Amino acid sequence: MRKPILRTFLHNSTFKTRLWIGIVSIVILAIWVTGVSSQYLASRLLERKTAELSQMMIGKSAQALEEKLRKVRLSVLTFMMSPPFEDILRASPGTEASYYSYFALNNALQVPLVQMQLIEPSIDSVLVSTPIGEFYSVTGAKRTNLDFADTPLSRIMQEKTLPLWVPAHRDGLFENSGRVLSLLIEPISAYRGTDVQVVVNVRESAIKEYAETNVVGDSGSIAVIDVAGNPVMDEHSRFVAPMREAAFQSEVNAGRNHFEYRFEGKEYLVNWARVTFPDNWMIFYFQPKAVLLKDIRYMWWATLVIVLALIPLALILSKWMTGLLIRPLYRLQRLMSRAGDNDLSVRFSSDYRDEVAQVGERFNIMLVKIEKLIQNVTEAEKQKRVSEVKALQAQIDPHFLYNTLNTILWKSESRKQEDVKEMIVSLSQLFRLGLNNGHDLTTVAKEVDHVSRYLSLQQQCYEELFTYEITVEEGLEEQPLLKILLQPLVENSILHGFRSEGHTGRIIIRVYREGAFIVCKVEDNGEGFDKERVEAGLVEAAGQENGGYALRNVYTRLRLHYGDKAAMELESEPYKLTAVTLRFPGEYEDN
Known about the structure:
This protein is about 50% helix and about 20% strand. With about 600 residues, it is of the alpha+beta class. The chain starts with a helix and ends in a 6-residue tail after the last strand. Its main location: membrane. This is Sensor histidine kinase.
């Protein structure tokens, strides 16, 4: 197969020429990547800063709008605390009122009405509906042919919880009135519940002005919706429709205060904030992304010009930089450093036949020889460890064998054939599972079956001596582990824990996962042991008293197989809780 022309040229070129070509390529690529990355990072930073600035502005607008609504309600509450309003409340329970009484009450109410509108100029009109008549400012032209009880606002006050803000609508109570937001409220006084209703109309233009205080420019638009998703003002705005789309609502429900959204063929940057008072209104700020980020296009062109200008400079300077960069030698140095850190899998490869390549080949030959020597040593150590594990496993002697055979003989003479059959099968299965076809590793299911048969045989030999319970976490049945781990522990409990007469023992075995580890825990309520002495005996040659031999055997086997990753934990409180916990990795490679 014929090699490409460029590859043939490089293979036949001098080392210096190849270095120069490599440096030129790297420098040009670096200039291009740097330019593009800088532009990208700058544009993303500009977008983020723009979004943060817009969010800050929309937050301030939400605060301004909230303060405005609070001020309106405060002025209304001040009005309802005035003596003339209290007089109306006292008169409201009556069913009739003379024209003179009505005129006097309405005349007295004008002063607090004027004061309220002076405090809050955005209030357009106020209507107080009572059983004795309707009261309002004489400066407002009330429609005489319309009773408040016949209006939609009255029905809303009957059905909804007050106080309540009604979104912008055309005021039908007063002549020459524009679009208003209505605050529906009941008296807050000792005369509450007198069927008195107060309607305060606030000019939509004034509320919108406060909403647009900080954010609206030539490119942005404001939209405010209530908790039900209805527009609070500008109900015919083109931004109302996208806010009702499921995709838009999912962005809001995701909790992001700013996001990008596309509708009407344009990309918009949307910022929003919540107006907690009065009813968790939401104020949205829509900005066309194309107008907002128009400066990014200039950044793209500037970056391109800079990159193109730097490429010729790179071609000129790279000729003098060739002698400073000897990449193959640096690469060989890095491989040697990794080999010094015990990574012997590294290999030096080169298509060239220069001095560096020859050194690399010698380096590879040396690594192969070192790996072979280490492999031989590792194999010898592995065989030694396997022999030690098998020797320790062979030390686990079924002490209960004579007792079991005697029990089988006794039950046979007593003609308890079913018990004899069951014990013989259990004993056979016990030894079969223990042998495990000569393998050191078994599974959790087989190990549990092994210890279950052992406990069953012990119950046959020592009736009413103990009860037991075994639980295994779901999914761990096929988990591999060393064989004959649990049987020495339960044997310890039976032989050393339940020696006291008149004491019914209880053995609980649990196998479960704890993070990346498998935990086998054997608990009993026996007489326990000296924890400190047994822990000291785990690492000593002796230590056979009080169950120390069995524990040391299991501990040694765990450490030989799993190394420092395995652990044995002991607990002992006589006749309450004595526990041995084995913890070892759930996944282990026998390296």
